[in-house]
Design brief:
The chain has 185 residues and is mainly α. The protein has ten helices and no strands. It folds into two domains: 45 residues, Arc Repressor Mutant, subunit A, CATH 1.10.10; 123 residues. Helix 4 packs antiparallel against helix 5, helix 5 runs antiparallel to helix 6 and helix 5 packs across helix 10. The relative contact order is 0.11.
């Protein structure tokens, strides 16, 4: 790996680690110190804190996407929904610290909205593939059903269950699966 790429990776990992540890957005100085790089390197490689945050959000989503493997659209829908919600639990628990910061800043910082939209699209495609038979059986109502299922199983729903309701991850997973099962009918 080239020296510039190593510097970028160290800075991204430092930001992710600091956010995971503190739950807050650290200063550029703190990130540089953790990464063992000069502050000017962050400005050189990322054009500042904003570019570093974009890289960290994208990195964290990409490195955890393997948790979202395909669930064959066969067998009882309740089992597939439980498997899907288990995957989302694992995924959301990994990405939540950096996503809290990204969602808080998405309205004000260009680029974050696009990165978060890519993640939502990945999750929606997985949902559509996993529940393809049930969606197909709804005919013209499939788009509305998919929208409702997406809303019940997305990161914002997870955050509400975990942060607002104060549920444990297993409890939040069960409630997410319950809601998706009920929506499916």
């Amino acid at each position: 790996m080239a020296k510039g790429e190593q510097t970028r990776l160290r800075a991204v990992l430092a930001l992710v680690e600091l956010v995971d540890e503190t739950g807050t957005s650290p200063s550029t100085v703190a990130v540089a110190k953790r990464a063992g790089v000069a502050v000017r390197s962050i400005f050189h490689h990322f054009r500042g804190a904003h570019g570093l945050l974009l890289a960290a959000v994208e990195f964290q989503a990409e490195r955890n996407r393997a948790l979202l493997f395909d669930i064959p659209p066969k067998g009882p829908s309740a089992l597939r929904i439980r498997a899907l919600c288990r995957q989302r639990r694992l995924y959301f628990e990994e990405i939540t610290p950096i996503y809290r910061i990204a969602h808080a800043k998405a309205h004000a910082e260009s680029g974050l909205h696009d990165i978060l939209a890519v993640d939502r699209a990945v999750l929606r495609r997985q949902l559509a593939r996993t529940l393809a038979p049930e969606l197909a059986s709804r005919g013209a109502g499939a788009p509305e059903l998919l929208d409702a299922l997406e809303q019940a199983t997305d990161w914002e729903a997870w955050r509400a269950l975990r942060d607002t309701r104060g549920l444990t991850a297993p409890s939040a997973e069960r409630r997410m699966a319950f809601a998706a099962t009920r929506i499916l009918g």
